[in-house]
């Protein structure tokens, strides 16, 4: 518990001093210091060789290499989708079509549908989510509330999608057929999502509508700055088709960014030329090339005459993801030292006395999955470790493997965006420009899922055991 306690104390100090800026470096320092404490204790008490830590760190950091590339491509999509007019078009048409009274409800449902089709909560949040956040601002909703609705819907859809990597991982690790796993998750995810929708409906109904004048300013400004056309929807349509055909995530994101870049040249040539002219002069082709490259990798902003809209159409590009990558690498180091030292195994043994009853077993699984998100800072590691810790216990007590796979998903996956220093928490905060601790109270689905999972364990509904208790 000592390395974990050191991490928590340092994070508390960091947040109290640096606030949301702690994720720019202070949190990373806390993770590395806690890693050093773990290594020192393990080498002193258990005589663990340093080479064991090196091997575990290399393996853990290497395991997130594809995730890091995905983050960079999400940054590229953020730039190209915005500057091509795709995101502004979403906002423009959304402000005309979505009533403020049902905005949060619609946001949650729309993100869930897109996430089911794509199998990726990250992609949903980085594309449709960014546009919906802009609509929410225009209609007078706080960024925290809108972000909570976006993330709740995206993670619900991700959990019931057969295209989701975490859903496939949890089912395959525990040797459960994919659709058996998904159908069993309906028992916990659907009630959690229904409650979430009810709460967001109430929040929308009691929320005062945004100023009609303000909405008019948003739509007029966007229409004046961008050439908005229904043809821009070809970009997200191509992306959905690629995902539906089960193309690899890296390929989908790269091709989506490429199509959006082409759309920028076709629909927003003036904006591309304006961006390129900031860094170079000369031949027209040279300027356009520079504009496309800038919007892909660099932070780009446009002057619209309205500060709120300026913020809406500014992008961070690939460079905006560097702090997230910094955090992920440091988080992987901490998780690796806890794993390489065997301390995670010790923590699991502490929980063993709590697993004698059905409720205790599921409750321990849910607590462990949630806690590991905070300890190892990565949902994939949390899924793997929680499954490994409890697999034998579930089998020994006669419970179905799908109960374990569901409990792991209800905790290790859905709670991941609630930790500011985790890969998911940092990613969503970066994409939406809303600090994790600000949006977390409104991630109702993510908060409710572990509790609903435990409640069903207490009641025993649809839980089968091969032996008599």
Topology record:
Blueprint: H1 2-18, H2 26-45, H3 50-63, H4 65-83, H5 86-97, H6 103-118, H7 121-138, H8 143-159, H9 165-173, H10 178-206, H11 212-225, H12 234-244, H13 249-267, H14 269-277, H15 284-297, H16 307-312, H17 322-340, H18 343-351, H19 358-376, H20 379-396, H21 401-413, H22 423-432, H23 436-439, H24 444-459
Helix pairs in contact: 1-2, 2-17, 3-17, 4-7, 4-13, 4-15, 5-7, 5-11, 6-7, 6-8, 6-10, 7-8, 7-22, 8-10, 9-20, 9-21, 10-21, 10-24, 12-13, 14-15, 17-22, 19-20, 19-21, 19-24, 20-21, 21-24
Account of the protein in words:
This protein has about 475 residues and is mostly helical. About 75% of the residues lie in helices and about 0% in strands. The chain has 24 helices and no strands. Helix 6 packs antiparallel against helix 7 (about 120-140). The radius of gyration is 23 Å and the shape is globular. The two termini are about 35 Å apart.
Short précis:
The protein is mainly alpha-helical. The protein has 24 helices and no strands.
Task: Report the mean per-residue pLDDT as an integer.
Answer: 85
Terminal-residue CA separation:
33 Å
Query: What share of the residues lie within helices?
Result: over 70%
Strand tally: 0
Radius of gyration, in Å, reads: 23 Å
Low-confidence blocks of residues: none
Order of helices and strands: HHHHHHHHHHHHHHHHHHHHHHHH
| Proportion in β-strands | under 5%
How does the major sheet shape up?
none
Shape: globular
Helix/strand/pairing category = mainly alpha
Figure out the total of helices. 24
């Amino acid at each position: 518990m000592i390395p974990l306690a050191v991490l928590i104390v340092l994070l508390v100090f960091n947040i109290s001093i640096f606030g949301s800026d702690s994720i720019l470096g202070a949190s990373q320092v806390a993770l590395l210091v806690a890693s050093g404490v773990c290594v020192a204790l393990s080498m002193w008490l258990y005589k663990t060789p340093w080479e064991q830590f090196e091997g575990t760190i290399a393996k853990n950091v290497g395991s997130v290499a594809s995730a890091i590339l995905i983050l960079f491509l999400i940054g590229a999509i953020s730039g190209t989708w915005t500057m091509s007019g795709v995101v502004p078009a979403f906002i423009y048409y959304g402000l005309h079509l979505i009533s403020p009274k049902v905005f949060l409800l619609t946001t949650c449902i729309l993100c869930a549908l897109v996430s089911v089709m794509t199998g990726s909560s990250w992609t949903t949040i980085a594309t449709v989510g960014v546009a919906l956040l802009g609509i929410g601002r225009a209609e007078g909703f706080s960024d925290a509330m809108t972000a909570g609705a976006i993330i709740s819907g995206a993670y619900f859809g991700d959990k019931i999608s057969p295209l989701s990597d975490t859903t496939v991982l949890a089912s395959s690790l525990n040797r459960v057929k994919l659709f058996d796993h998904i159908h069993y998750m309906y028992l916990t995810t659907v009630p959690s999502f229904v409650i979430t929708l009810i709460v967001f409906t109430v929040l929308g109904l009691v929320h005062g509508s945004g100023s009609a004048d303000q909405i008019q300013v948003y739509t007029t400004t966007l229409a004046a700055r961008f050439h908005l056309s229904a043809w821009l929807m070809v970009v997200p349509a191509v992306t959905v088709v690629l995902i539906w055909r089960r193309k690899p995530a890296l390929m989908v994101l790269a091709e989506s960014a490429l199509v959006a870049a082409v759309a920028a040249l076709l629909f927003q040539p003036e904006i591309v030329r304006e961006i390129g002219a900031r860094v170079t002069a000369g031949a027209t082709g040279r300027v356009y090339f520079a504009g496309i490259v800038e919007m892909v990798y660099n932070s780009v902003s446009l002057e619209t005459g309205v500060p709120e809209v300026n913020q809406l159409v500014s992008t961070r590009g690939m460079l905006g993801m560097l702090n997230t990558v910094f955090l992920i690498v440091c988080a992987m180091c901490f998780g690796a030292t806890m794993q390489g030292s065997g301390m995670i195994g010790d923590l699991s043994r502490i929980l063993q006395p709590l697993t004698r009853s059905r409720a205790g077993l599921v409750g321990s699984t849910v607590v462990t999955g949630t806690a590991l998100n905070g300890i190892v800072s990565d949902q994939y590691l949390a899924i793997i470790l929680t499954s490994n810790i409890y697999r034998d216990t579930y089998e020994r007590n006669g419970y179905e493997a799908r109960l374990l796979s569901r409990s792991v998903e209800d905790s290790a996956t859905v709670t991941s965006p609630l930790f500011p220093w985790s890969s998911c928490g940092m990613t969503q905060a970066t994409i939406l420009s809303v600090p994790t601790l600000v949006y977390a109270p409104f991630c109702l689905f993510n908060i409710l899922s572990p509790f609903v999972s435990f409640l069903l364990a207490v009641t025993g509904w649809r839980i089968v055991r091969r032996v008599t208790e």
